């Protein structure tokens, strides 16, 4: 999860990523931030995030992002 937090802090360092569970719902990450986040996650974790998985539930918290990455890595 630390790598995910590092990526998020590079995008926007002013958010408490460890405790927020509404990153998308509260509009803390905009569409450009999400595109950057997806690109960085794919590069860092060597996964491809399909369009079907780009939904708020998968990106509202670090825990949700981590679960998505773990699931994608297991599917490979």
Overview of the structural elements:
The chain has 76 residues and is mainly α. The protein contains four helices and no strands. Helix 1 runs antiparallel to helix 2. The radius of gyration is 11 Å and the shape is globular. 17% of the residues are buried. The model has no long low-confidence stretch (mean pLDDT 96).
Give the arrangement of secondary structure elements.
Layout: H1 2-11, H2 31-45, H3 56-59, H4 62-75
Helix pairs in contact: 1-2
What proportion of the residues is helical, as a percent range? 55-70%
- C-alpha termini separation: 20 Å
Query: What portion of the residues fall into strands of 2 or more residues?
Result: under 5%
Shape: globular
* Major beta sheet summary: none
Instruction: Round the mean pLDDT to the nearest integer and report it.
Output: 96
Sequence stretches where pLDDT stays below 50 over 5 or more residues: none
Number of distinct helices: 4
Keywords:
76 residues; mainly alpha; 57% helix
What would a concise description of this structure say?
Helices cover 57% and strands 0% of the residues.
